[in-house]
Amino acid sequence: MKNNHYLLSLGLFIACFACNATTLSLPKESTVPGGIAIIAINSDSKPSASFYEKNVMILGEPGEWQAIVGIPLSAKPGTHELVVNAEGVNTRYAFEVDKKEYEAQYLTIKNKRKVNPNEQDMQRIVKEKKRIAAAKSHWRNTDAITFDFIKPTEGPYSSPFGLKRFFNNQPRRPHSGLDIAAPKGTPIVAPADGVVINTGDYFFNGNTVFIDHGQGLITMYCHMDKIDIAEGTEVKTGDLIGKVGLTGRVTGAHLHWSVILNNTTVDPLLFLTE
Hints:
Elements: H1 2-23, E1 36-41, E2 48-51, E3 54-55, E4 57-61, E5 64-70, E6 78-86, E7 89-97, E8 104-107, H2 119-136, E9 157-159, E10 164-167, E11 170-171, E12 178-181, E13 187-189, E14 194-202, E15 206-214, E16 217-227, E17 234-235, E18 240-244, E19 254-261, E20 264-266
């Protein structure tokens, strides 16, 4: 009887340990521009942290906190510092960012206004930038965050994250997401639990949805044919949010998928479990 009791207790311990391990699962660490740094913080109370004056996600428990830091594509190789405030005291945590060279991509856009907008287009773009910036910087306090993302639509990866981009031979900002090629009308689903915080039809991004997953973790879905979700809706992993399309600045039907941490776009592949 004692042996049975011991085995039962051991089984419960293992199950509980596995549960905690799943709860605390984190994205893949990659300390390069466009990657993620995971920094251990020793504090009895939950601290706050910032990286280049942007709030940073903190998860864990007393004495075992983790800062999940998005590294900008513009970050230079070398030493960078995370500023941590614990019980009113600021401490700087240094970490290294390694060099990474991203490939160049040259695209031909038939609609030349999508490369060189006219004055009326620019007025629209300026207004839209404010809404997009507000969505990317949105912050919701919660510890119920899932990092085990599923792929938001079916199809091959057509353009990886971080590419140096040239439209009609003109240099533009690096590719801030991962492109998934798929026929028009292919379903797009939420890769993890969250709340829809923004939907709209934008000049460059076309029909777009933003999902807030908590503590500055935001996902963005662009060039959609149809949006099937409303702002304020709570979504679960796998819930339908829309269909693949070719709205905005595109060369064909695909989903542009961005993942944003501390208002910084990072490589979505670091979140996929497949």
